[in-house]
Amino acid sequence: METQTFGLLGQYTNTLFGIGGLLVIFGIYFISTYNSIINTKNTANEAFSAIDTVLQNRYNLIPNLVELVKQYMAHEAGLINKVSEMRSQLLSNTNKASKERFAEENELQAGMKSIFAIAENYPDLKASNNFLELQTQWSELEDRLQGARRGYNSAVKLLNNSKEMFPSNIVAKMMTLPELTMFEADESARVEKMDAKAMFAA
Amino acid sequence: MFNIDFGTLPEKAKKNLAPEEIMTLNGLFTDPTIQQQLENIEEQRKIRQKWKYAIYGGCTILTVFLSFIFGSGESLPMRLINGFFYTIGSGDNSFSPVIWAAIISYSTGIGLLYKKFASKIEIPLKSEVLQKMCPLLYSKLEYSYDEKYSFDELELLRGKNFLSSYDSLEKVEDSVHFGVEKDGKIFSVNGFELETSEMRGSGKNRRRVTTNHCYLMKAVFPSARIPLSSDLFIMHDEIDGGGNSITYIGPILGLIIGMVFSFIFLSIVIDTPSITFFLSIAIGLGIGYAIYHFRKKSLYKNRVQLENMEFEKLFDVKCEDQVTSRMIITPAFMDRIVSFVNKTGNQYEFLMQGNTMYIKRQVTGSYLEAGTEKNMLTNLVGFTQFYTDMREIIQFTYDMNLMYLSKTDTTKHIETDSSLSTINPITITKISNSKSSLFGGLLSRYVLKM
Could you give the angle at which helices B273-300 and B244-269 cross, rounded to 10 degrees? Predict the structure, then answer.
């Protein structure tokens, strides 16, 4: 059979077709991997926004809770004021992704847990429908926060896998990707009984 | 006197029965009503046996007679064999009168036997025996051999992909109901057997084949504290473990078919074999990769990736709402599902909608069939399997209910839940196995006061 040639390419035709075919395959792989990494990064950002939204809802709930418990827990004014101050501090924090912010969040959470624990000693407060309602809302926000954090961790894990695993790490190195760290359980949350007064001692 | 000993059941059937439970079940069968029923059933079985021999004997005589009439040959055996295979016409128009007469007479006989005795053996066995076995487990567990306790959302579930492979819903039977009422709110579990089939083959080989078979249950949690606005699917794994073959078979087939077809096409268009070869490889790879890419995209759509490796190997979770789904599927929830699936050894899928959870238990082969041919103990193997399945499913759904209830009234609800306190003491041994798990422990502590 007579070999068909393609103009000036001549005898290199086979090689060029081979290289061209490989380039097409690499091109398809590059585009799909790039898009996949972008998608994962956006998912992580979205998950982080979900966390932030829950935290905002939590900040909105605190003033109502504080106003209510103040009426019953006059002796715990220090603890209540400290929680209010922490809320104001967190609201003014502009660096939303900073580690300091999340450390403060954990402290705020511990403070609120203490208020709920101390409320056990105030039967009138415990029996208040408003308090029960706020407590339920708080508890649901806590669950939502855990769900959002786990979603964020999952997205960060996928992104880190793309950045570290071969061959997607080659594509990832060509991109500017943020360094995202996973949420870890706060050590104070592992302690069953906290000494709230010691924690908030000035 | 009928002596039924559950201790003599095959190991597979009794492995989930505690010794005390075997004694209680044996005790049930000393009940005079059950004894009377079993005797009636046994009497019917004996009558059925006589009818069976008469029908089979008559069919055999008819076949031999017709073979003798149509046959030819010097010796009697040769004449009968020739007669049996005697054919009128040739090719597609051929017809074997004796073979067809044998098939029709035997199948008619078997059909008549089933029709006459199903209502006298199978239905009484289920309605008398199984109906009494269920309340032994939970006082409020009711069983009906028909679709009395079924529910209506089947068309909706088919649209949601949960039952999408059930193209026609033909068999709905063996339904159960369990309900606990508290403050006007009812925690309930309903279930029934569901089967679909289709005609397959052509000509003489055309027959009805069961394509899908499951036991479908619906648990309604009255005080769901987590509002689920999107459907949450917990389906058989297709991504991490069992699904690898599904993920890769399509792309590999695409690669091979793409290469072969493009090679054939390019061989006509291009004269150079090497170019044809390289191009067809490239096209095949491109098609294979495209199939892989889109398959993966569809598998991963709305996927909720979770931390429990064992759970991830068993299931794929899909939900549009990534946050709320994680509020429900907590680490404790995943542990509970894994322990439930491992303990029962069956394949399950779940769908959660609002305050409702649908549970689909995949069934292979027959399920809960009280065959008229089988002896009493063999039938009880199937009943025992159903009995232990119900125990695990209701306990599991009750644990799920705890996770759904409002945190503020959970304890109150459990402590005053009188119906679940009526769990027969025989089940305590088995339930104590789950005491180590978080929710099994809660159930043991508050419901059983252990």
Answer: 150
Contacting B with CB below 8 Å, chain A residues are 1-4, 13-14, 17-18, 20-22, 24-25, 28-29, 32, 47, 50, 132, 135-136, 139-140, 143-144, 146-148, 150-151, 153-154, 157-158
pLDDT value at B251 more than 90: no
Contact B19, B428 (CB under 8 A): no
* Distance separating alpha carbons of residues A142 and A54, to the nearest angstrom: 8
Q: Which one, of A56, A113, A123, lies nearest residue A83 by Cα?
A: A113
- Look up residue B42 and give its two tokens: 């046994």
- pTM (2 d.p.): 0.74
The reply to whether residue A17 touches residue B279, judged by beta carbons under 8 angstroms, is: yes
CB pair distance less than 8 Å for B271 and A17:
no
- Nearest in space to B89 (alpha carbons), one of B81, B97, B79: B97
**Contacts A147 to B, Cβ<8 Å:** 322-327
Q: Where would I find the H helices in B131-205?
A: 131-137, 154-159
Residue A107 CA: distances (Å) to CA of A82, A104, A112, A146? 10, 5, 9, 16
Close Cβ partners of B31 (under 8 Å, ≥ 6 residues apart): B132
Give the closest residue to A30 by CA, choosing from A176, A173, A177: A173
Show residues of chain A in contact with B272, CB under 8 Å: 3-4, 13-14
Question: What pLDDT is attached to residue A98?
Answer: 67
Mean pLDDT over B235-250 rounds to 68
Report, as an integer, the average pLDDT of B353-372. 84
Burial class (CB in 10 A: 0-12, 13-18, 19+), A86: buried
Contact B333, B438 (CB under 8 A): no
Residues B34, B128: contact at Cβ < 8 Å?
yes
Task: Give the tens place of pLDDT for each residue, B261-303.
Answer: 998 988 888 877 877 887 888 888 888 888 888 888 888 888 8
Q: Determine the Cα–Cα distance for residues B303 and A158; give it in Å rounded to an integer.
A: 13
For residue A167, is the peptide bond before it cis, meaning its omega torsion is within 30 degrees of 0?
A: yes
Residue B309 has pLDDT above 70, yes or no: yes
CB contact under 8 A, A144 and B306: no
Q: Closest CB to B282: pick one of A3, A25, A32.
A: A25
ipTM exceeding cut-off 0.95 for this assembly:
no
Tell me what the mean pLDDT of segment B329-348 comes to. Answer: 89
Q: How confident is the model at residue A38 (pLDDT cuts 50, 70, 90)?
A: very high
> For B84-109, how does the pLDDT look when each residue is reduced to its tens digit (9 = 90+)?
988 887 777 788 889 899 999 988 88
Residues forming a β-bridge with B218: B190, B358
